[in-house]
Specification:
Blueprint lengths: L1 H12 L24 E7 L17 H8 L2 E7 L4 H10 L3 H4 L26 H7 L3 E7 L17 E5 L17 E4 L2 E4 L12 H18 L4 E6 L11 H5 L9 H15 L23 H34 L6 E7 L12 E3 L9 E3 L2 H7 L12 H4 E7 L11 E3 L3 E2 L3 H8 L7 E2 L2 E2 L23 E5 L2 E6 L2 E5 L6 E4 L15 H17 L17 H15 L1
Parallel strand pairs: 1-7, 1-8, 2-12, 2-13, 3-4, 3-7
Antiparallel strand pairs: 2-11, 4-5, 5-6, 8-11, 9-10, 14-15, 16-17, 17-18, 18-19
Helix pairs in contact: 6-9, 8-10
């Protein structure tokens, strides 16, 4: 099977891009090509670039690291800087505004073409494409792509779904703010404590995985290849984990974020995910000095990061559970597993984080890790979720597929730039599916990305057009070695990513012609893809509007004095 698939992929690579199919999707029998893989996409929420052990983190992630050891790690893969935009780009293969998700789900700007707060009919999802190609399709976990008509999971090609409209749920008995916490099992609305979801006192990461396994079993029973989109809440705020697991990490973070960042960076260099010529970015001016914190404050921050670490470690446990289930069902070898995050580490709540409730990390608590731990999560980069610096848009990506990735590539690093818009064309290619020009009578926009399936047999990944970003007025362009980036209301900066991945040396003044060209390309892209001008207030370095930042600083500084 491995030899057959290499031949298929090699032939497809010669075409340079996935072939766009007929004007409408037509079902194909599941048994037509036995080389087609099952697909599991595991998406984390607000996780930093370096949290996995195989990307330099100190949090134990043995199951995820095992996938990397027998798969491929991408070192320059990107998301779209924020939850809803990244999810829209992943599922549709379009830039976020093209899919209708220029901002978070629910925000519809007047007269906007690209900020509609929902998935637009001009986009199809991976589930719709693969279902039409004979796949059983399912999703479990966070949706956050709108609850408007034709924007819900069960309307967008998923045969089965356990769907959280916006996420944020970890425990069955989690406290709510005056309104019930809701999930949808297929299209049936229910409270999260409904026994139909789980009769035990479940933890969310396990529940989404458990239902994903049930859906896999249904696909196998129907003798179809399956597509599972496992969309975790973790490690999005409010951070919550079982108390016994939090306790395992208490005390490990008392040396502070600066020394831990240095240790992560050293491991990244040893692993090869960041070269020795790149440099560790300094902390931002808003950062707290660990050595000037009181023992009580240091203990507080140790607890914050212990909770975060427990959340990540439990995701790893769930990946181990899922892998064991795939092996039990005889589906492991021919399943393509992709693991990534929707944006960089989350600095919202600023330098002090948030820290309330009893027990901390329990179902009635309200915990944010804060800006300085987010800097650790994003090692070696600067900035965070919201921003188009590397800290906001760089994601780990692990691809694992025993039958489809050459054995000689086990544990290898893929250094060519890639983007979350590349997932759709990759899956179209490996599933031998047709991407439509029309669907349900609606003209469909063509895919924006390019397949990274050639990397599965060692080929380099050619990109014939730049990558672009736009979020909250923050902009970026990546074209080969160059990255141009602008913080909202600022000036364009330019970085040579071959020697300065951590964006320490702005060379815009030395290359004004390159800056002008890339800025012009961004403007043309924004016009073509319906990017709306951003008119919101400037944000702090941790992504909060000034009024919210002032409240956070006043409350949390007083609370920790």
């Amino acid at each position: 099977m491995r030899k057959l698939l290499r031949t298929v992929l090699a032939s497809a690579t010669m075409l340079a891009a996935p072939v766009f199919g007929k004007t409408a999707l037509k079902p194909a029998p599941a048994e037509a090509n036995p080389a087609r893989p099952n697909v599991v996409v595991i998406l984390l929420d607000d996780m930093g670039f370096s949290d996995f052990g195989c990307y330099g983190g100190e949090i134990p992630t043995p199951n995820i690291d095992a996938l990397a050891k027998t798969g491929i790690r991408f070192t320059q893969f990107y998301n779209s800087a924020r939850c809803s935009p990244s999810r829209a780009a992943l599922l549709t293969g379009l830039n976020p505004h093209q899919a209708g998700m220029g901002y978070l789900a629910g925000l519809k700007l007047p007269h906007s073409r690209g900020t509609q707060g929902r998935l637009l009919p001009r986009a199809v999802t991976i589930a719709q494409v693969l279902k039409s190609a004979g796949y059983f399709t399912a999703m479990s976990g966070k949706w956050h792509l709108g609850m408007e008509p034709y924007s819900k999971a069960w309307e967008r090609g998923f045969d089965r779904s356990l769907m959280l409209p916006t996420g944020g749920i970890y425990f069955k008995d989690q406290a709510s703010k005056g309104h019930p916490l809701i999930a949808y099992l297929d299209s049936v609305r229910m409270r999260i404590d409904d026994p139909r979801l789980g009769k035990d006192n479940w933890y969310g990461t396990d529940l989404w995985t458990r239902w994903g396994e049930r859906f896999i079993d249904q696909g196998v029973a129907q003798k179809k290849p399956f597509f599972l989109y496992l969309s975790h809440v973790a490690p999005h705020f409010p951070l919550m984990a079982p108390q016994a697991e939090i306790a395992k990490f208490r005390g490990r973070y008392r040396i502070g974020w600066e020394k831990l960042r240095e240790a992560r960076y050293a491991r990244q260099q040893k692993l090869g995910v960041i070269g020795p010529n790149q440099g560790l970015s300094p902390l931002l001016p808003d950062a707290l000095d660990w050595d000037r914190l009181s023992p009580a404050q240091q203990d507080r921050f140790d607890n914050l990061m212990a909770i975060y670490a427990a959340v990540i470690a439990h995701v790893d446990k769930s990946v181990g559970d899922l892998v064991a289930h795939l092996k039990k069902m005889g589906q492991y070898d021919n399943t393509l597993i992709l693991v990534l995050s929707d944006n960089g580490g989350n600095a919202e709540s600023g330098p002090w984080g948030r820290y309330s409730g009893d027990p901390l990390g329990g179902p009635t608590s309200h915990v944010f890790a804060g800006m300085d731990w987010a800097a650790l999560e994003n090692t070696p980069f600067r900035y965070f979720k919201h921003f188009t610096r590397e800290g906001g848009i760089a994601t780990p990506l692990i691809a694992h597929w025993p039958d489809g990735i050459d054995k000689r590539l086990d544990g290898s690093l893929q250094r060519d730039p890639g983007h979350i818009i590349d997932i759709m064309p990759t899956l179209v290619q490996v599933a031998h599916a047709d991407y439509p020009k029309t669907f349900k009578g609606q003209a469909i926009l063509p895919m924006e990305g390019r397949s990274f399936a050639p990397a599965f047999h060692g080929a380099s990944l050619h990109r014939d057009k730049p990558l672009f970003w736009a979020h909250e007025g923050n902009k970026a362009v990546r074209a080969g070695r160059w990255k141009a980036v602008m913080k909202y209301l600022g000036q364009w900066q330019l970085y040579d990513m071959t020697v300065d991945r951590t964006e320490l040396r702005d060379v815009a003044a030395a290359h004004p012609d390159i800056v002008r060209r890339m800025a012009r390309e961004w403007d043309e892209w924004a016009q073509r893809t319906d990017v709306d001008p951003w008119t919101g207030p400037p944000r702090t370095n941790w992504g909060a509007p000034p009024d919210v930042a002032a409240r956070d600083l006043a409350r949390d500084t007083i609370a920790t004095d």
